[in-house]
């Protein structure tokens, strides 16, 4: 057996004659265990929050979206339709219209967006699953609408109020300054039949109406739309499909994935995750000072043993290696114990919802192998550095007792 490893294991598992050193060693080990648990649980928590948040985006946004580079709208031609049908891997596509509009209900007003959608829209985006009151649009009735919860609160608007419709206004194209409501403003009256709730931003932003009604409001032609939203069969083939479409459509169109459409949101999530990792790593570094202190006290406690080993032919390098290995093993022990406890806690939270955000919503948490690897590497590297720092106190003068 390797000599430094053998001695390090004996020192690690044997009690010191000095009870203070034993207490400090236990505290150092507990510090590594708790630090490991905290780091893994925080990373798992952020993974759960990311999955939870992205789930809303998967409900409201398509796998990718096609817009015109110039202008707010374009013609959906037969050639365009042929391109979409020819490409393998596209499960469904739908035409949409988005435009800012002015909403009015019983003298209350709000500025938001209309989104004109087709009947197959819910096959691309499952917005109908986010409806909390009422139902999705019945396309047999051309003036039905589904509004966001934020818009509902802002306008004090419910559903199925047949006595007072929701009024939606947009300026007519090419009218310049508005001088007459009758001549320069296009108006429609809609009947809200459902209220959806996703995120605060989306709830205050969108009202869904049938596509023909949106075209009428904006004075669009029957084939004139704002965008095409697409759902693919397999996300792994999405980039290939997008590249093929770009070649067919040319430079007049831009294609954005769900991640690109919500670039700020994804950047915020990743930044928060990194910041949390760095903060808890800093806390872990502070905890590892206990390991350094415990090793240094162990060095001075074993001074007579070290002198004997030195006299028997062990080099200063060998003696330093003993305490590097001892400190490393202590961190590995704390790492394994901390990870085991943290993983158990993660799965208990997933199964039994021990911690709740609201009475009906458990704090989201997710076990990911990448988090396990990150914590493992972090603790091993920091533990090795801490052990090297402590072992650097061993010099020839210390060993010889000068």
Helix-strand layout with pairing:
Blueprint lengths: L2 H11 L5 H42 L3 E5 L5 E2 L2 H9 L3 E16 L2 E10 L3 H4 L6 E4 L9 E5 H7 L10 E6 L9 H4 E12 L3 H4 L2 E5 H8 L5 E2 L1 E6 L5 H12 L3 E5 H4 L1 H39 L1 H9 L4 H37 L3 E3 L2 E2 L6 H23 L4 H5 L2
Parallel strand pairs: 4-9, 6-8
Antiparallel strand pairs: 1-11, 1-12, 2-10, 3-4, 3-7, 3-11, 5-8, 6-9, 7-8, 13-14
Can you give a write-up of this model?
With 402 residues, this protein is α+β, with helices and mostly antiparallel strands. It folds into two domains: 3-57 and 265-400, no CATH class; 62-260, no CATH class. It has 15 helices and 14 strands. It has helices at 3-13, 19-60, 78-86, 121-124, 149-155, 181-184, 200-203, 211-218, 238-249, 258-261, 263-301, 303-311, 316-352, 369-391, 396-400; strands spanning 64-68, 74-75, 90-105, 108-117, 131-134, 144-148, 166-171, 185-196, 206-210, 224-225, 227-232, 253-257, 356-358, 361-362. The strands form three sheets. Strands 3-4-9-6-8-7 form a six-stranded mixed beta barrel. Strands 2-10 form a two-stranded antiparallel ribbon. A hairpin with a 2-residue loop joins strand 3 (90-105) and strand 4 (108-117). The longest helix is centred in the first third of the chain and has 42 residues, at 19-60. The protein is elongated. 34% of the residues are buried. The mean pLDDT is 89.
Keywords for this structure?
402 residues; alpha+beta; 54% helix
């Amino acid at each position: 057996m390797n000599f430094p490893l053998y001695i390090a294991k004996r020192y690690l598992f044997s009690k010191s004659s000095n009870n203070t050193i034993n207490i400090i060693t236990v505290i150092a080990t507990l510090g590594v265990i708790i630090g490991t648990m905290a780091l893994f649980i925080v990373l798992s928590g952020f993974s759960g929050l990311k999955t939870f948040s992205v789930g809303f985006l998967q409900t409201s946004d398509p796998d990718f979206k096609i817009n015109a580079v110039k202008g707010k709208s374009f013609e959906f031609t037969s050639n365009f339709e042929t391109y979409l049908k020819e490409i393998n891997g596209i499960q469904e596509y739908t035409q949409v219209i988005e435009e800012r509009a002015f909403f009015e209900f019983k003298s209350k007003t709000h500025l938001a967006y209309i989104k004109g959608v087709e009947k197959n829209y819910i096959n691309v985006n499952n917005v109908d699953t986010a409806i909390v009151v009422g139902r999705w649009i019945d396309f047999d009735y051309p003036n039905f609408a589904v509004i966001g919860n934020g818009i509902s609160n802002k306008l004090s608007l419910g559903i199925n109020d047949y006595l007072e419709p929701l009024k939606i206004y947009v300026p007519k194209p090419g009218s310049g300054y508005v001088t007459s409501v009758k001549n320069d403003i296009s108006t429609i009256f809609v009947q809200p039949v459902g209220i959806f709730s996703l995120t605060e931003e989306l709830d205050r932003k969108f009202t869904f109406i049938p596509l023909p009604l949106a075209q009428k409001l904006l004075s669009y032609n029957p084939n004139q739309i704002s965008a095409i939203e697409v759902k693919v069969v397999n996300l792994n083939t999405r980039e290939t499909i997008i590249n093929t479409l770009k070649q067919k459509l040319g430079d007049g169109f831009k294609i954005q994935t769900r991640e690109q459409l919500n670039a700020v949101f994804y950047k915020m999530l990743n930044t928060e995750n990194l910041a949390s990792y760095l903060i808890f790593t800093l806390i872990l570094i502070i905890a590892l000072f206990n390991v350094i202190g415990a090793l240094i006290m162990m060095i001075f406690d074993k001074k007579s043993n070290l002198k004997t080993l030195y006299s028997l032919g062990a080099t200063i390098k060998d003696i330093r290696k003993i305490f590097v290995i001892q400190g490393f093993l202590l961190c590995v022990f704390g790492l394994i114990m901390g990870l085991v406890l943290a993983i158990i806690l993660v799965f208990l939270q997933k199964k039994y919802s021990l911690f709740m955000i609201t009475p009906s919503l458990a704090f989201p948490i997710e076990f990911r192998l990448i988090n396990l690897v990150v914590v493992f590497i972090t603790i091993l590297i920091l533990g090795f550095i801490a052990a090297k720092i402590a072992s650097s106190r061993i010099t020839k003068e210390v060993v010889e007792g000068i």
